[in-house]
Amino acid sequence: MKINLDTKSEITWCPGCPNHMILAATKETITNFIKHKKYTQKDFAITTDIGCHAKIFDYLNLSGIYCLHGRALPTAIGMKLGNPNLKVLAFVGDGAMYSEGMAHFIHAFKYNANMTLVLHDNQSFSLTTGQPTPTSQQGYISKASPLGTFDRPFNPIKLALASNATFVARTSAKDTPHMVETLTKAINHNGFSFVEIIQDCLVFNIETNSKDNLMHKIQDNEDLKKAERLADEFDYNSKSGKIPIGVIYQSEEKSLEEKWPQLKKQYKKRINTTRRPKIQSKLIPIKKPILTKKPIPPKKSTPTKQKEHKYGKKSKEKSSKKSNT
Question: Is 325 among the domain residues?
């Protein structure tokens, strides 16, 4: 089977942007699944948010929906409800997900749908010239905050663990093999998997870049108390401490598809539904196109005669009378 995940869209990310590496890691991960015949290309679908990261929608040859700001996650869950056997990946940024999308983020762990959330975190709204996000550090000066950011950033890993997450992982955009390994584990997880990718922005909030020397790889962890300690190691506010990368926490629970009887029946069959639902044909009558033997020639347009202006006619009559006299 030929695998073609490339598109003809021109890549407009900045040269050297870590999004290039995230795209390459995503392609490699999906390609490996297809090569090992675990899934086909049609089994995957994506949703994206608004932002630099969201351009990945144009560069991946996969079905999906380009969503509103902060709404990629609920749209992805809706896709899972429509077809529980899809392998859905939602690509979001720290700005939208932790702002408008915060409620969706928390409740997604509660629902535990079998899908993957890939979060690009560069601690700034880079597409819109670097405004601070909920994970931006204190003192960050931007056009939107010339006096600096006063608020402390919150810790999304701790929030995920407090929301009863079943899979929480972190990786680095500069480490492609580790990204592939982490994304593979996330997609294989039976439930909602959350992968945070720490990445730099080459233009905005540069002071948070180059945290590689703080990162240390950890073994897969299933102990919640240990996961909470690992989450405390990085506070998103300074370059002190350590940044654990790897599977911070993983547990086994029933997924959304296994809890609902309406979804469970289809989910067990492992069938990727691509046909039109029967109810849709009843609600929306399908009109068959009218086929004719010969094409109907276009009607010939007849030129319209221009009427002579009444004033012009009268003026001609007057001039003729004067000539007679």
Answer: no
